[in-house]
Amino acid sequence: MINLPDARGRFGEFGGKFVPETLMYALEELEEALTQAMADPEFMALYQATLQDYSGRPTPITHARRLSEKVGGASIYLKREDLNHTGAHKINNAIGQGLLAKRMGKEKLVAETGAGQHGVATATIAAYLGLSCKVFMGKKDVERQSLNVFRMQLLGAEVIPVESGSQTLKDATNEALRYWVEHVEDTFYLIGSVVGPHPYPKMVRDFQRVIGDESRQQFLDLKGKLPNAITACVGGGSNSIGMFYPFLDDDVALYAAEAGGQGEETAYHAATLAKGRKGVIHGSLTYLIQDENGQIIEPYSISAGLDYPGIGPEHAYLSSVGRVHYESITDREALAALELLCQYEGILPALESAHALALALKEAKTMPKEHSILICLSGRGDKDVHTIQNALKVGEKDE
Amino acid sequence: MSRLTDYMTKDKGTMHFVPFVTAGDPNPEVTIDLALLLQELGASVLELGIPFSDPLADGPVIQRASLRALKGGMTLAKAMEIVPEMRKRGLKIPVIIFTYYNLLLQLGQNQFMEKAKEYEIDGLLVPDLPFEESEALRAACRANELALISLVAPTTSPQRLEVIGRESDGFLYCVSSLGVTGVRKTFHPNVLAFLERVRASTTLPVAVGFGISSHEQVQEIAPYCDGFVVGSAIVREIEKREVTLASNREKAIADIKETLSQKLLLNIEGADNVEEAAQNN
Predict the structure, then answer these.
(1) Total number of domains in chain A
(2) Which of these is catalytic: A314, A363, A378, A383?
(3) Are residues A108 and A168 in the same domain?
(4) CB-based contact A181 B179, cutoff 8 Å
């Protein structure tokens, strides 16, 4: 299970390279450069050093004592990816790919972003490494996330509003791919999640596995054993793969929270595995939310980082073999969990991470006191304060 | 050898005009009219594009055409059903379906093959299905005498070009410039050297596409290939006349005809092709 993907970039039947011919050479070039870099101790040492000195790794594990007591069940632990530089796990991958781009002699970075977190991480690493940076962002997202747009611009990036399609993350990804096709000779496409054509899902996983590797060692040091269960949220699925991957061969239950939005039974969700069908999106064979003819449907979640119509192909595989359990968490459940964490632990999680938290609270209740459950707290919630404020106001009116 | 290759090679020295239109842009009736008009203008093969929500190989012009067609409810299955209507109205030239892979997957490979056979469709082009991922579809196409057309680009490595040139069917579609579909003033700087490499790699006819909109461009590449694909330059003319197409279709179609024949100088050299196509069908 940990030896995937195979040489064709497949996780079981999922993954692969479904891209226009023009990009094939770029993917081959990237794969070769990646393989060499990962086998080069000097590159890996530079990556580790940058994680440590620039992003502040390792991130701690926090025992949520009051919350555990309140829930009554397993002991709850938090892997604090929110304490990274820029406030989320996204920087781990941006550092890795940024260093790789530099090593390959590509001076121009291009990225897609939904809410802006990955765009900020890419703009950040571009500034740090002295590379130029273009970020494609759906026009609707540009309007909804104007602070992040400004933040990217402050960091020296050019933000390009995308007016095609539904003007959100999937269209920003299309446009970034189109741009890359045209500028493939000197540009590095820095994808933000474990999606896209091979080798992206593998590369992003390998740059995010530091979350799971650290957690494993920290837990062993702290408790002398591994946690009984782990939860993480999944949109494209980079923090969850990063967390799960080092535990795949262990006797640890793995749970992933998809965005259930207003409920799986409504049209407003991003529950890709629960409600999607197999198909091809952004270069990869996976599950996706689509109509009966294969047109891709715009998903919904209160969390801008989870409303992606596809899911990383490795997740599709791990779901199909039953190694990871995927459940959907609604906006409401995520908000309730977020409030609890604020009030009981003094930590404001990102709305994305609140989905992982809500799923963990459900599981923790059913587990014995001597067990422990670890949550990947993928990001901090400062960026969401406005959304949370609005959602809670609406919630009050409903009641 | 597929009947498409056969058709394209029987006349040595013919420069084939391969137009692209999006099925259902803005409605199926216009698509049928256009197919007949393009045949009249000398088209050798018609490329019928299927609208997709996420057309990542296409530039803005064809993206907007996709949106218009999707608004009208166009699907892969419905687009294929237009082909026999075109035939009834007198279309003789071969028809190729241009579709993104997800649409094909959702319809189902077998279902697609059955319909392609029933409607006498000649070829299939899937822009996001590179050679490495195409094995199963290639086998199914062979079994059903449908030409699966491969794309090659200036960035295609010599090793891959050799395999693709050998294993492909119909004709070899050369991407003239890096980037998405759409009108451009210039080709990739190495395009002529690239076309020479392509020619050496295959016995199939070689057609060039992406960015062609003028007679001058066609003349530049003509010595190096057997055909040229024009997409966005045609679709743009449809877009310009969206209103007239609804109010006075005949006039709009006549306008499009005039514009295209001036731009591409088509009606003159293409006339012979149509007659021959008629005799062969």
Answers:
(1) 2
(2) A378
(3) yes
(4) yes
User: Over 80: is that where the pLDDT of A392 sits?
Assistant: yes
Asked if A353 contacts A345 with a C-beta cutoff of 8 angstroms, the reply is no
DSSP B73: T
What DSSP string runs through A195-263? -SSTTHHHHHHHHHTHHHHHHHHHHHHHHSS--SEEEEE-SS-HHHHHHHGGGTTSS-EEEEEEEEET-
Q: Mind telling me how many Å the CA of B80 is from chain A's nearest CA?
A: 13
CA B232 – CA B60 distance, rounded (Å): 9
Is A292 close to B133, i.e. CB distance below 8 A?
A: no
Say how far apart CA A143 and CA A10 lie, in whole Å.
Answer: 37
Give the tens place of pLDDT for each residue, A318-368: 999 999 999 999 999 999 999 999 999 999 999 999 999 999 999 999 999
User: What are the backbone angles phi and psi of residue B50, rounded to the nearest 5°?
Assistant: -100, 125
Q: Would you state the pLDDT for residue B10?
A: 85
Interchain proximity A19–B178, CB inside 8 Å:
no
Q: Which residues, numbered 94 to 113 in chain B, qualify as contacts with chain A under a Cβ-Cβ cut-off of 8 Å?
A: 100-107
Q: Is residue A1 part of a domain?
A: no
Whether cis (ω within 30° of 0) applies to the bond prior to A309 is no
- The domain in which residue A37 lies consists of 18-52+90-204
Q: Does B135 touch chain A (CB under 8 A)?
A: no
